[in-house]
Structure formats: C-alpha cells, structure tokens
Amino acid sequence: MSLDDAAEELASDLGADRAEVREKLETLQSYSVPLEEAKGSIRREFGDAGGGGAATPSETEIAQIDTETGNVTVTARVLTVGKRSIRYDGDEQVIYEGELADETGAIPYTAWTDFSLSPGDTITAGNAGVREWEGDPELNLSESTTVTVQEETLEVPHEVGGERDLIDLQPGDRGRTVEVCVVEVERKTIDGRDGETEIKSGVLGDETARLPFTDWDPHDAIAADASVRLEDVHVREFRGVPSVNVTEFSTVEPIADVEVSESATRMSVREAVDAGGVFDVELVGNVLEVRDGSGLIQRCPECGRVVQNDQCRTHGDVDPEDDLRVKAILDDGTDTVTAILDREATEAVYGGTLAEALDQARDAMDRDVVAESIAADVVGGEYRVRGALSVDEYGANLDCEAFEAAADDPEARAREFLAEVEP
Ligand SMILES: [Zn+2]
Questions:
Q1: Measured in angstroms, how far is the CA atom of residue 361 from the centroid of ligand 1?
Q2: How far is the CA of 316 from the centre of ligand 1 (A)?
C-alpha cells in the first residue's frame, strides 16, 4: 500500500485531514517505523481504539518467513537484546532490537514496547509483524503482539549473547558486546538534534581488527589506552566502514589490558572493494597516475573543502589556506583504488615541507610543478599502502596512513608472502 493510499484510508476512517495524516505517516516512516505500526500510532493519537481483534496467526518456523509473509506467531530463543532511542513528534521513544532464533534459522527483530526480553529467554511471540529491511525479513513486536516466556529452553544452533570480535561486526548489528582497547579518542562538539552536543569519537582495537567508534553519551572510562568492555553497542556504516556506536544505554566497564592487532588486513583491491569498505587494510599495487587535484592545493578556512579561484561552494569568496595532497591511482591487477595522502604523507613522498613546495612553485611561477615532481617520483612504482578504504558511487578511495615503496626484489616479496601464508 502506498503512503497516499494509507493516508487516504486512515484520514477517512478517523475523519481527519488527509494532508495532516500523510505528514505524520511520513515522519514515522523516516524513523523506519513500519507502515502498519505507524497507522496504529496515528489511530491511537486520534483516539481510535482500532479494529484489532484479528485471530492470532498460526505458528511459523523462522526459516519460512520471507518479506511477503503476513503476521506470524513464532517460538524462539532471544539471542541478543539492544536498547536504542528514536524520536517521534519531539518525543523520545525507546525501542529494543536484536535477533531471535529457532532450530531452523535466525531473524532480526525490533520491539516497539518493553517486553523485558533477556538473551537466553525462550519466548512465543504471538501476532508479530514482518517487515522488509534491506531486502531481508525482520520481525516487529508491537503493542498488538503478545510475548509469553516459555519454561522449556529451546536449543538453537546459534550463540546466545552479543559477544563478538571486532572483525565480525557488520553494519546493522545491534546489542553487541565487545572487549576492546581505546586506540584513539577525541572529544567533539556537534550540532545534534538538541543543539550542541558533546560526543567522543576515535578508534577501538582488539586482537582481530580496529574500527572507528562514536560515544554519543561520553563515558569517562572511554579514555586513550584504556581497555573496556562495551555492552549493548550497535553498528552503523560510517564512510563506508562499520562503526561502533556507544549510547546512553550501553554499559562501559574497565577491564584488564586488551591486545590490539598491529597489522592491517592484507587484501587484494578487488576483495577490499567487494567488502564495501575496510577500516584498516593493506594493499600492494602500482601507481598508474597522479590525479588532478594533487600537489599544492588550497582549502576553504571554514570547511576545509578544496577550493579553486578562492571560491568555496558553501562559503563563497574566501581567503584560502595552502595544503599538500596526493590522489594516486593504485592498481594491483585485480582493480584500482584512489590512494589519498594527507599533508604529512605527501611531504614524505615529495621530500620537502609545504613551505618548500611553496618556494618551488614561486621559483617556477607555476603551482603545478609540485604535483609534477611527485608524479615523476611515484608513477610506475610499486607501493604498499595502509589505511581506511571506502567505496561510493564514484569509486574506491583509500585514506592512507602509510604509503611506502614495496620491496624492490620480487623474490624477497614472494618469500615474505609464503612466510605469511605458511603456519
Ligand atoms: Zn567552505
């Protein structure tokens, strides 16, 4: 049913203004509230008790649920429970999210009211809704769902609880628990929905990987080099990689030191691009080209965007600041990626500072000489690069933390590779 049809039907049922109903529906949908749930909310708001009264649907196995399935009744084990708040009409609403499993499969759920679910519980959810989330079915436990805790434990072929290594986290995960070391952290003030808000952000690490994080409710225990157990975090995609989100509902406890993996994940460019982004990856390839926008560049002092002719897209006429950057196309035979070097890395490749680059440009009366001299050094060479790879509609970019010439001797590299793959 389209939003217009739903608004029409609801408005006529409730004797309300169609445009007003449509706007409310739209707001709810923008918070991913499923249509049926949104209609129920609006009915209640207009004081309509609603029809309800539908018979409880028959028991369904999780493996049989698809995005076309109507309401179902399932008996399942609660694997994880995460708590999160969303906002509707200016009010905070707390929702619960996680996964349920039976012998046949597992499925994510969202509970719009507090059923006091705990990981490990075996429950029967009567009249649960099914909605589609990124192509897959998800269960909705709403006010019209009945949840009964069963005394007998359902054995399921899935791990109960949200404990994971960082390498196993995926965008969309909820109710996860990780034990990590805070590798980097900084405080930031952002323009949140309630005006200026303090947050913490940085990088977490464990033995398997490193990932960025945001702490929306700054916890004192999240400090540089501290090891912490984070319970009830969720994972979102941020700049193409999974990012750990710590909230007011997360528990943060100091723990004994956690070892952090020193090495990045070694991948081919194709593998990293197919993964949709990798936070800390190592690639080895040849530089095909140094792209336009490399060498001496100028940035807007307000927003940091690269500007040309003193014109920022947002801030108009500005007095730009000089900077150095390299955008190098790297090819390893499987695919290409644009490796982006910041000022420090560019100075290392250029073999001089920003001030020296400005001198060279002034002497030559041409700013392009800096990019040309960098290109003369790196094009054709083989480089080992490490950093965060993200993918968008324009292609793959790697923000380089390290950019160094690969071993010249192919035999040495083969030996090194063998040493890595042999146990
Ligand atoms: Zn600007």
A1: 24
A2: 7
CATH of 166-254 among 3.40.630.30, 2.40.50.140, 3.40.50.150, 2.40.10.270: 2.40.50.140
Q: Which residue has the higher pLDDT, 229 or 172?
A: 229
Q: Which of 44-58, 96-110, 352-366 has the lowest mean pLDDT?
A: 44-58
Between residues 139 and 30, the one the model is more confident about: 139
| Tokens representing residue 95 in the block | 């929702």
Which protein residues have a CB closer than 5 Å to ligand 1 (ion)? 300, 302-303, 312, 314-315
Give residue 239 CA to ligand 1 midpoint distance, Å: 20
Give residue-wise pLDDT tens across range 278-324: 888 999 999 999 999 999 999 999 999 999 999 999 999 999 999 99
Tell me whether residue 140 is exposed, middle or buried, using C-beta atoms within 10 angstroms of its C-beta: 0 to 12, 13 to 18, 19 or more.
buried
Tell how far the Cα of 294 is from the centroid of ligand 1, in angstroms.
19
- Domain 265-421 falls in which CATH fold? OB fold (Dihydrolipoamide Acetyltransferase, E2P) (2.40.50)
208 against 340, higher pLDDT: 340
C-alpha span between 128 and 34 (Å, rounded): 12
- For 165-240, list the strands marked E by DSSP: 176-192, 195-205, 210-215, 227-238
Domain ranges of the chain: 3-45, 62-149, 166-254, 265-421
Q: Report the pLDDT value the prediction gives residue 335, as an integer from 0 to 100.
A: 95
What's the rounded Cα separation, in Å, for the pair 416 and 412?
6
Q: Between β-strands 195-205 and 241-246, what pairing exists: parallel, antiparallel or unpaired?
A: unpaired
**What pLDDT, on a 0 to 100 scale, did the predictor assign at position 418?**
66
d(CA 7, CA 291): 51
Tokens of 403: 């950019």
For the entire predicted model, the pTM comes to 0.66
The CA 367 to ligand 1 mean position distance, Å, reads 21
- The CA 308 to ligand 1 mean position distance, Å, reads 11
Distance between CA atoms of residues 287 and 256, nearest Å: 43
Distances (CA, A) of 167 to 205, 206, 244, 279, 305: 10, 9, 12, 10, 32
* Average pLDDT of the segment spanning 228-235: 96
d(CA 162, ligand 1 centre) in Å? 42
| CA 65 – ligand 1 centroid, Å | 49
Domain spanning 62-149, CATH class: mainly beta
